[in-house]
Design a protein that fits this description.
Layout (H helix, E strand, L loop, with lengths): L20 H10 L11 H30 L3 H26 L1 H16 L6 H42 L22 H53 L2 H6 L1 H56 L4 H30 L7 H11 L2
Protein name: Odorant receptor
Keywords: Membrane, Olfaction, Receptor, Sensory transduction, Transducer, Transmembrane, Transmembrane helix
Membrane topology: Multi-pass membrane protein
């Protein structure tokens, strides 16, 4: 089986993306699936613009509220405001990088899709297992982020309900996220509209992060599967080797040479794909590690200074950020170990076969 990558233009615009099914659904909530860049509908473009504007408004409002609270000496208010701000900045920059590198990411996705279509039957089990693992990672990551966003959204209502039963009159209305507003949030209409807006703002925040990071993990898992497929091909070839036939038969030697050349070309194609993945996702990887480190510092401080039920909102938030670090670290590790195995197993075998039969 040759590892030929079809030009992007030959792939149908309505391609079946089962390999990244869940990642695609999450990113389309934001409106941005890189492989649709040439056929993206106008309403998805509008949705992208609305989500970016929503994140921008929240970032400005939450930052200003945190700044005013800090000036007034209210550290807990400042921390509660700034913590989600960093997540929104992270999600906003992720999508900006996606838009800037959209063509590169599109090429990576289409190359992978074409490779799946051309896969040999012996690779099916390996690819299926890794694709399933990628979907599971995506589901649990999205679930943790969704749960954290839900806690942010419902916690104020629990507090207001408790205050109401304690006889607080008039009831002080609390917003899901703390931000500076140009109007009085205690007005019933403004409070209702602002609450809806802030809860909606959680959608682009969590989808921009979970979809983007899960897609990167899924790509790395597939590339890892391709390196495993190379090993399967080498094992399949070694079963057919006959030292006596190789010495006495020119045709047998030529067959082995052709097989090794084909495997070598495929191996180089996978290396080129790794290079494409690195070029497409490097800014996002750097952003993720930097922002996650900042968020974890803020969360640790928040757990110390924030009082009451708000402490519980930070637990799933922290677990979600740790899950992001795990996904990126795990994805990078399996690719590194595939290219350069720690014990040299597979790589030495590959080099020795090439030396024996090609050179």
């Amino acid at each position: 089986m040759m590892y030929n990558v079809a030009p992007v233009s030959k792939l149908p615009p309505t391609a079946n993306w089962d390999i990244f099914k869940l990642q695609r659904k999450i990113l389309l909530i934001f409106g941005l699936w890189p492989a649709d860049r040439l056929v993206r509908r106008w309403y998805f473009k509008l949705l992208i613009a609305i989500n970016l504007i929503t994140l921008t408004i929240c970032m400005v409002g939450e930052f200003l509220h945190g700044l005013y609270a800090y000036r007034d000496g209210n550290l807990s208010e400042s921390i509660e405001s700034i913590c989600p701000t960093v997540s929104r900045i992270s999600g906003f920059l992720r999508m900006v990088f996606y838009l800037i590198n959209e063509e590169k990411i599109d090429n990576v996705l289409n190359h992978i899709r074409q490779a799946v279509l051309d896969q040999h039957p012996r690779e099916h089990d390996v690819n299926k297992r890794l694709i399933t693992l990628g979907q599971q990672f995506t589901f649990y990551l999205f679930l943790m982020m969704f749960f954290a966003a839900c806690l942010y959204g419902v916690t104020p209502f629990f507090i207001m309900a408790y205050s109401w039963f304690q006889g607080q009159r008039p009831l002080v209305k609390l917003l899901p996220f703390k931000l500076a507003l140009p109007f009085d949030s205690q007005n019933s209409l403004y409070f209702f509209l602002t609450t809806i807006f802030l809860n909606y703002a959680s959608a682009p925040t969590i989808t921009s992060q979970s979809g983007c990071d899960a897609l990167f993990s899924g790509v790395c898992l597939y590339v890892y599967g391709q390196f495993q497929a190379i090993k399967l091909e080498l094992k399949a070839l070694s079963v057919t080797l006959d030292n006596t036939a190789l010495k006495d038969s020119f045709a047998e030697t030529r067959r082995v040479n052709e097989e090794l050349r084909r495997i070598s070309k495929r191996h180089q194609a996978i290396i080129d794909l790794v290079t494409e993945v690195r070029n497409a996702f490097t800014p996002i990887v750097l952003l993720t590690y930097t922002v996650t480190a900042i968020i974890m510092c803020i969360v640790c401080v928040a757990m110390l200074v924030v009082e009451g039920i708000y402490k519980f909102t930070y637990l799933p938030y922290a677990f979600a950020e740790l899950a992001l670090l795990f996904l990126y670290s795990y994805s990078g590790t399996i690719i590194r170990d595939s290219v350069l195995p720690k014990d040299g197993t597979g790589l030495i075998e590959y080099i020795s076969l090439i030396r024996c039969f090609i050179f």
